Amino acid sequence: MALSVDPPFDGYIFMESDPKKCTALRALAGDYPKRSIDVQCGDANELLQRLARKNWAAHRAVLFLDPYGMQVAWDTMRAVAATHAIDVWILFPLGIATQRLLQRDGNVPPGWAAALTRIFGADAWRDEFYHVVQEPTLFDRSERIEKTATAQSIASFYKRRLRDEFAVVAPNHVLLRNSTGCPLYMLCFAAGRPGRGGDI
Description:
By secondary structure, this protein is of the alpha/beta class. Helix content is 33%, strand content 26%. It contains seven helices and nine strands; from the N terminus they run βαβαβαβαααββαβββ. The chain has helices spanning 19-29, 44-52, 74-82, 94-101, 110-120, 125-129, 151-163, and strands at 12-16, 37-41, 61-65, 86-93, 130-136, 141-147, 168-169, 174-177, 183-191. The strands form three sheets. Strands 3, 4, 7, 8 and 9 form a five-stranded mixed sheet that branches. The chain has a two-stranded parallel ribbon with strand order 1-2. The protein has a two-stranded antiparallel sheet with strand order 5-6. The longest helix is centred in the last third of the chain and has 13 residues, at 151-163. The protein is elongated, with a radius of gyration of 20 Å. The protein starts with 11 loop residues before the first strand and ends in a 9-residue tail after the last strand. Mean pLDDT is 89; it is low at 196-200.
């Protein structure tokens, strides 16, 4: 769809880790000989952070991030935001990944906890998605951890994190659901710098 836009973008960069899909993208590029297309095969976090380190003073870009799961690290989002020139559409994994890692009793395995911190950029998710419930007992009070995370609260938390880095984050987002109505992804938008009107 992006390649079919008229007038076209000045250039296109496709990043993909799967070599077979890189081959398919290069074949697709052959169908658009008049477009400037660069297919890069590798880890998108490394490729995007390298791209973000370039001089963006005279350039703008639109980035569409479509991960399979929790691959996009917060360091990558921070690097993209630091360019002040790249606007981002991101499909953020809700039920398909994040929600599943947030255990009901708060006992999140270390590897899962590290993955959540990597995608949110901080371990503040612990306080955001869990709270301590105090229950009276016969002689004293006991405490237990209770999960409070919902698709909407996870989406809201991630957007607040984006606002710490990007100039503007669109107030609205879209929840993409499966056939049973369960939210799988959130589609949201963040701008590298405000528009001429100061907002989006």
